[in-house]
Amino acid sequence: MRGLRKTYGSRAAVDDVDLDVRSGEVFALLGPNGAGKTTMVEILEGYRQRDAGEVSVLGQDPANAGRGWRARVGIVLQGTGEFEELTVREVVTHFAGLYPDADDPATVIALVGLSDKANARTRTLSGGQKRRLDVALGIVGRPELLFLDEPTTGFDPAARHEFWELIRRLAANGTTILLTTHYLEEAEALADRVGVIVAGRIVAVDTTEALGGRQDAPATVTWQRPDGAVETADTHTPTALVAELAVRYGGEAPGLTVSRPTLEDVYLSMIGAGR
Amino acid sequence: MTPLTLAWSRGRMELLQFSRSRESVVFTLLFPVIMISIFGSIFNGVIAPGVRFTQYFVTGMIATGLMTVGFQNLAIQIPIERDKGVLKRLRGTPMPPWAYFAGKVVFVIVVGVVETVLLLAIATAFFGLDMPGSATDWWTFAWVSVLGITACTLCGIAFTSLVRTARGAPAVVTPVALVLQFISGVFFVFTQLPTWMQQVAALFPLKWMCQGMRSVFLPDSFAANEPGGSWELGKVALVLGLWCVIGLVLCVRTFRWSNRD
């Protein structure tokens, strides 16, 4: 997308955004609530019209892409229990019927781990199970590109890790995945690359390891002096400093730590600066 | 999928949902029956030679039943589905938009037929309704039902653009339906209503659906008691047809798939 913009009244929800997501990668849009993640993704999904800019998703403009395009795109929506009285199998089978080249419903239900709930009415599912059903409906049409909008909000840690496993399996099959999240661990666990969005603008795009120049940022080395005081040094050559300390202390330097900014440090300084 | 199997697949989902939620089954199918039982027990009088009020009331309830299935049901159901994101989810699939409405139509037809058959059975068994004797009457019954339920369905879908949220839907839709029933001569003999009320009712489909149903089930002598002194079947067809057109135009122009914008 190039120069993407969407305004509501005088407020720009998405403000002049350029972004490329490569085929086959898992890309995470990371940003605080209200940063414009959902607006941007809904434009890419074809749900909202943009005010300016150019967008190409799988080679087509989502604003007027047809049913052939829809068949190649999967969208995982926040389920609201809308199929209350239908069973998991009935819902997945019905949606499979809407796609030209759908996966076998039973296979999809097994993939998302709902096989033993296949005949349960959907209203009896737990929150995490409902989310798995949402994923099943998103992937049943064998999409080349899958959108996941804040997929694990409200999950407990165990459910989140199981869900991540599921996403990794999909990614391993070659599905391109664009997910939005405000959880750093989620971006770090899943994404090949991360885009940080603040107040409608993309402020950084990089791998999680390199985000915000994290790899090249000065490292902080701390150790204890013989008198007990803690000494701290920021340096671009931490290895040399540690070697020097080894000589100085004739072996182990007491209380030695070497650290670089965490993803959280980088992210917080970014959303602080972007505001 | 071919268009027909797609429409059936959507309709089947609608019917499954419906048949598994007891409240809507009871309300939609049994409510008219309960109403007939109550009114049939209270008002036993004869309103014209050979016509008891119960028979008159049953014809009105058949028309009302069609309106409930088409208009009330959809005007309340669709905003709920819009709020819950059903429409959004379907729009995210390659399903053509018409299939959603086709599914609703399948649903309305099946429930409408079941409800009408049930009503006829009970009315003939307990409330002295005579089945139409001639093929002409059956033909009138068929086209009045089809035109009437089509007009109501289209108006029900169109009406959803007036309803902002699902929670407000019953509050907006139910009074409309109830007022129409009162002024269209479902509960009272139409010609006993004030003239201005009759004129207002004549603008809407229900009055004409009731009149068409009376022509089928009541003796021809009763036609003299109608406002025009006859069954006016031509006018019934005209007004119902007109409402189909109005409803369709409104559907196409105003239907919203989401609550935004």
Automatic annotation (TrEMBL), chain A:
Q: Which residues form the ABC transporter domain?
A: 1-224
Major location (coarse): membrane
Looking up SUPFAM superfamilies in the UniProt record yields: P-loop containing nucleoside triphosphate hydrolases
Membrane topology classification: Peripheral membrane protein
Q: Indicate yes or no for the key word Cell inner membrane.
A: no
One GO term in the molecular function aspect is: ATP binding
Q: Which UniProt keywords apply?
A: Antibiotic resistance, ATP-binding, Nucleotide-binding, Transport
User: In this entry, which stretches build a coiled coil?
Assistant: none
Query: Is Nucleotide-binding one of the keywords?
Result: yes
Q: Which SMART domains match?
A: AAA
Which residues are listed as membrane-spanning?
A: none
Cross-referenced CDD domains: ABC_DR_subfamily_A (cd03230)
Q: Where in the cell is it found?
A: Cell membrane
Entry-linked Gene3D superfamilies: P-loop containing nucleotide triphosphate hydrolases
The family classification in the record reads: Belongs to the ABC transporter superfamily.
Name assigned to this protein: ABC transporter ATP-binding protein
| Organism per entry | Pilimelia columellifera subsp. columellifera
Automatic annotation (TrEMBL), chain B:
In the bilayer, the protein is annotated as: Multi-pass membrane protein
Compartments it resides in: Cell membrane; Membrane
Key words, A-Z: Antibiotic resistance, Cell membrane, Membrane, Transmembrane, Transmembrane helix, Transport
Transmembrane ranges, per UniProt, are 25-47, 53-76, 97-126, 138-159, 171-190, 236-255
ABC transmembrane type-2 domain residues: 23-258
- Do you know which InterPro entries this protein is assigned to? ABC2_TM, ABC2_TM_bact-type, ABC_2_transport, Nod_factor_ABC_transporter
Please state which protein family the record places this protein in: Belongs to the ABC-2 integral membrane protein family.
| Record-given protein name | Transport permease protein
Name its species. Answer: Pilimelia columellifera subsp. columellifera
